[in-house]
Each structure stands twice: as structure tokens, then as C-alpha cells.
Write a structure and sequence with these properties.
There is one protein chain. With 326 residues, the protein is of the alpha/beta class. The chain has a single domain, classed as TIM Barrel. The longest helix has 20 residues. The N and C termini lie close together (9 Å).
Length: 326
């Protein structure tokens, strides 16, 4: 089945000016879309960055003209209020001439604790996300005033004075039955990080049939496979913990401690490392087989983006089009 190829603007490993230049390069090379993480902290100190995603995407919108853009993903519950997220999304959609999709999720303690409001239990976080989605959708879809009284949020006569008439597509990150139900009912796009067919099945059952589904996959391209494995271990050894762990650890020290026993060979088993294009295509096929229509690659290592782009142009892009027909 066809699957579009995307590029990840990894705010945790690159500064804002570099991210804008990478987006321009991705557009030039023919990537179908670009997604941006939205972090206040990197996962590990070694990653070294965390610029504001929205400011960066505003610059990207002006520096590009074709490539679709998306937050992957924004938490609209604590660090940002839902009304602010709606305003940011509407403005970015206008700046990009309708190329923006708002990706939403329940967030991580890593990024949300900075607001000083604590980190609620998972059930409460889901309740907050449901209310936030209601508020954001109403604001993006109406020229009128929005007033909302919920268990977690109050909105007093909010209105977006600058918004696209067609609204802004919304993606919702899923990991289980509740989030799939929410996404199927309210989202235009399903967002996930694991190639699990059951996520798409639950999304379909809740009303998502026929809608796009976007995933993300890290790779560590490099001509020296051993160096690529070491780089992946240094920067991405946290990746395999799963959503329940990643959502609750409070800071980089916690991720460092939790990953201290992760070996290089463990990382290499879960992330394609080196310059074998077939290994990347094989890993991507799991997502295509699970029904994903879009897959955004994460190239690990800020200093490896240009070599990755060159390899993509010469090797990966032609092979991808042959394999997935996008």
C-alpha cells in the first residue's frame, strides 16, 4: 500500500535555525511532509536542545511553500492552555496556506512539570485531553464566541479573530482503547509511534475509517555502522521504554537512570543503524502493513542530517517510491 515519506524536525537535538534549514532541505528533496516535536526538555542531556516548536514552525512556514507541516505532538492541557493552542494552530495554518495539521496528545511529565501544576494520574490526563479537544475544535471551527464550563477548564467568551475558513485538521495521538475512541470520534488523523494494527482497528471502529494515520520511526544513518549504533545508543537509548514510562518520568536524569542498562545491541535491534536501505524499508513495512498512510523518519544526530539528506536523495527516496508507491 502507498505510504508517504516524512521528515522529523527533532527539536530535542537541533537548534531553531538548523531546524528551519532542515525543513527547507526536506522540501527540496521531495519529502511529502514534516512533523515537529514540541518539547520543553530533551529526553537526555546529550541531546542538548529544546527550542520553541511553534516559533520555529512559523519560520518554517515562511521558508517553505509545498511541504505539509504538523506538530507531533502538542499537549494542550498544562504547559499550554487549549485556547492558546487553538490560536497558535489557526495562525500557523494561515501562515502556511493551509499546510498545517495540529497534532495533539496527553503529553509527558518531562515537558509539562515546568508549569508547576503537578502531573495528574493518567485517567485525569485523559479527561483533561478530552475537554481540551472539545475547546480547540470549537474555536477552530467557529467564527463565534466559545464559552465552556468543564471539570478542568473554563473558557469565557473566547474567539479566534484570524483563522482559516476551512478550519485546521486535528490529529490525536493514540496508544490504547480510550485514546483510539477519542481520535476516532474527534480527529481527522490518527497519530501513533508503534506499528500496531489494533490501534487502527480501534480507530476505525470509533469513526476513523478512511482517515489518514501517521507514525514516526527513528533511524541512525551512517556509512560506519558501528558509529551509527553508538550514536543511536547515546541519544536514543530511551526510545524503547514505551508510552507509560515516557509519560511519567520527570526529567532527563530520570531517563538517564532508567536507560543505564540499555546496551548498544539492544538499541540496534530496535532502530535501523548504518547505510542498509533494505533494513530501513523492512522496518517501514511493518507500519505499512499496520495500515499507516504516512511515516516520518527521525534521523538521529544533529551533525548527521546533511549526510542523511544526501543518502536519501541518492538511495532512500527512489527505493521508498518503488516500495510504497507514494
Amino acid at each position: 500500500m502507498a505510504m508517504q515519506l516524512g521528515y522529523t524536525l527533532m527539536t530535542e537535538q537541533s537548534g531553531p535555525k538548523d531546524l528551519v534549514s532542515y525543513a527547507v532541505r526536506a522540501e527540496e528533496l521531495g519529502f511529502d511532509f514534516a512533523v515537529s516535536s514540541d518539547h520543553y526538555f530533551p529526553w537526555l542531556d546529550e541531546m542538548g536542545h529544546a527550542p520553541n516548536a511553534w516559533v520555529t514552525l512559523g519560520a518554517v512556514a515562511q521558508a517553505t511553500s509545498r511541504i505539509d507541516l504538523m506538530t507531533y505532538v502538542t499537549c494542550p492541557t498544562i504547559r499550554y492552555r487549549p485556547v492558546v493552542v487553538a490560536q497558535q494552530a489557526a495562525t500557523l495554518a494561515l501562515l502556511s496556506d493551509g499546510r498545517f495539521t495540529l497534532g495533539l496528545g496527553s503529553g509527558e511529565n518531562l515537558n509539562e512539570h515546568v508549569a508547576g501544576e503537578g502531573w495528574p494520574p493518567v485517567a485525569v490526563r485523559h479527561e483533561m485531553l478530552v475537554e481540551a479537544v472539545h475547546i480547540v475544535k470549537e474555536l477552530l471551527g467557529s467564527d463565534g464566541y466559545t464559552t465552556f464550563h468543564g471539570d478542568h477548564y473554563e473558557v469565557d467568551r473566547a474567539k479566534l479573530w484570524d483563522r482559516p475558513e476551512a478550519g485546521v485538521p486535528i490529529g490525536i495521538a493514540v496508544s490504547g482503547e480510550r485514546s483510539c475512541r477519542l481520535a476516532g470520534e474527534y480527529a481527522d488523523v490518527m497519530v501513533a509511534v508503534e506499528p500496531k494494527p489494533e490501534l487502527g482497528e480501534m480507530f476505525d471502529a470509533a469513526g476513523g475509517a478512511g482517515k489518514p494515520r501517521i507514525a514516526q520511526m527513528p533511524i541512525s544513518y551512517g556509512a560506519d555502522e558501528d558509529a551509527a549504533v553508538k550514536r543511536a545508543h547515546s541519544l536514543f537509548r530511551w526510545f524503547g521504554f514505551g508510552w507509560k514510562v515516557n509519560a511519567d518520568l520527570p526529567g532527563t536524569a530520570g531517563f538517564d537512570a532508567a536507560s543505564q542498562f540499555v546496551r548498544e545491541e539492544d538499541v540496534a535491534e530496535g532502530i535501523p543503524c548504518g547505510d542498509d536501505v533494505d533494513a530501513v524499508l523492512q522496518a517501514a513495512t511493518a507500519y505499512a502493513d499496520a495500515g499507516f498512510t504516512h511515516l516520518a523518519l527521525v534521523q538521529i544526530g544533529d551533525d548527521q542530517q546533511e549526510p542523511f539528506f544526501e543518502w536519501t536523495q541518492q538511495t532512500l527516496m527512489p527505493a521508498w517510491r518503488d516500495a510504497f508507491g507514494s
